[in-house]
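[recover] target loaded
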Protein backbone atom coordinates (compact mmCIF):
# COMPACT_ATOMS: atom_id res chain seq x y z
CA UNK A 1 0.00 0.00 0.00
CA UNK A 2 0.93 3.68 0.11
CA UNK A 3 2.92 3.23 3.34
CA UNK A 4 5.56 1.11 1.57
CA UNK A 5 5.65 3.02 -1.75
CA UNK A 6 7.96 6.00 -1.75
CA UNK A 7 8.31 6.91 -5.41
CA UNK A 8 6.81 6.04 -8.78
CA UNK A 9 8.81 6.46 -12.02
CA UNK A 10 6.97 6.35 -15.36
CA UNK A 11 7.46 7.55 -18.90
CA UNK A 12 6.04 10.94 -19.87
CA UNK A 13 2.83 9.77 -21.50
CA UNK A 14 -0.19 11.93 -20.74
CA UNK A 15 -2.07 8.96 -19.29
CA UNK A 16 0.80 8.25 -16.84
CA UNK A 17 1.08 11.91 -15.87
CA UNK A 18 -2.63 12.14 -15.17
CA UNK A 19 -2.79 8.88 -13.21
CA UNK A 20 0.26 9.77 -11.10
CA UNK A 21 -0.98 13.30 -10.38
CA UNK A 22 -4.27 11.84 -9.16
CA UNK A 23 -2.41 9.25 -7.09
CA UNK A 24 -0.10 11.83 -5.50
CA UNK A 25 -3.10 14.05 -4.73
CA UNK A 26 -4.72 11.15 -2.87
CA UNK A 27 -1.42 9.99 -1.28
CA UNK A 28 0.89 13.01 -0.82
CA UNK A 29 3.57 10.80 0.79
CA UNK A 30 4.22 9.20 -2.64
CA UNK A 31 6.42 11.05 -5.13
CA UNK A 32 6.13 10.78 -8.90
CA UNK A 33 9.10 11.31 -11.17
CA UNK A 34 9.16 11.12 -14.97
CA UNK A 35 11.71 8.64 -16.32
CA UNK A 36 14.99 10.47 -16.97
CA UNK A 37 15.93 8.17 -19.88
CA UNK A 38 12.56 8.77 -21.56
CA UNK A 39 12.88 12.53 -21.01
CA UNK A 40 16.38 12.59 -22.53
CA UNK A 41 15.20 10.44 -25.43
CA UNK A 42 12.39 12.93 -26.15
CA UNK A 43 14.88 15.82 -26.00
CA UNK A 44 17.28 14.06 -28.40
CA UNK A 45 14.40 13.30 -30.74
CA UNK A 46 13.57 17.03 -30.87
CA UNK A 47 17.25 17.96 -31.32
CA UNK A 48 17.38 15.49 -34.22
CA UNK A 49 14.79 17.62 -36.03
CA UNK A 50 17.20 20.56 -36.42
CA UNK A 51 18.36 20.71 -40.04
CA UNK A 52 22.08 20.49 -39.26
CA UNK A 53 21.64 17.59 -36.84
CA UNK A 54 19.20 15.77 -39.14
CA UNK A 55 21.77 15.96 -41.94
CA UNK A 56 24.46 14.39 -39.73
CA UNK A 57 22.05 11.68 -38.53
CA UNK A 58 21.13 10.86 -42.12
CA UNK A 59 24.81 10.46 -43.01
CA UNK A 60 25.47 8.33 -39.92
CA UNK A 61 22.54 6.05 -40.81
CA UNK A 62 23.89 5.63 -44.35
CA UNK A 63 27.38 4.78 -43.09
CA UNK A 64 26.08 2.32 -40.51
CA UNK A 65 23.76 0.68 -43.06
CA UNK A 66 26.65 0.40 -45.51
CA UNK A 67 28.72 -1.51 -42.95
CA UNK A 68 25.80 -3.77 -42.03
CA UNK A 69 25.08 -4.55 -45.69
CA UNK A 70 28.68 -5.61 -46.41
CA UNK A 71 29.39 -8.59 -44.15
CA UNK A 72 33.15 -8.79 -44.64
CA UNK A 73 33.61 -5.05 -44.10
CA UNK A 74 31.27 -5.18 -41.10
CA UNK A 75 33.29 -8.02 -39.52
CA UNK A 76 36.58 -6.21 -40.18
CA UNK A 77 35.25 -2.98 -38.68
CA UNK A 78 34.00 -4.84 -35.59
CA UNK A 79 37.48 -6.38 -35.19
CA UNK A 80 39.14 -2.96 -35.49
CA UNK A 81 36.94 -1.25 -32.90
CA UNK A 82 36.84 -4.27 -30.60
CA UNK A 83 33.09 -4.62 -30.48
CA UNK A 84 29.78 -4.30 -32.26
CA UNK A 85 28.76 -1.37 -34.40
CA UNK A 86 25.61 0.42 -33.27
CA UNK A 87 22.78 -0.40 -35.63
CA UNK A 88 20.52 2.48 -36.73
CA UNK A 89 17.01 2.59 -35.27
CA UNK A 90 18.08 1.18 -31.91
CA UNK A 91 16.41 4.11 -30.12
CA UNK A 92 13.45 6.35 -30.83
CA UNK A 93 15.87 9.09 -31.78
CA UNK A 94 16.01 7.66 -35.30
CA UNK A 95 12.25 7.26 -35.80
Amino acid sequence: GPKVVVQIVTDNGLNYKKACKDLVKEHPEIYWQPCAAHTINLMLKDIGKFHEVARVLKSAKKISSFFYNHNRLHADMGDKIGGELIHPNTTQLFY
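[recover] notes: The longest strand covers residues 7-10.
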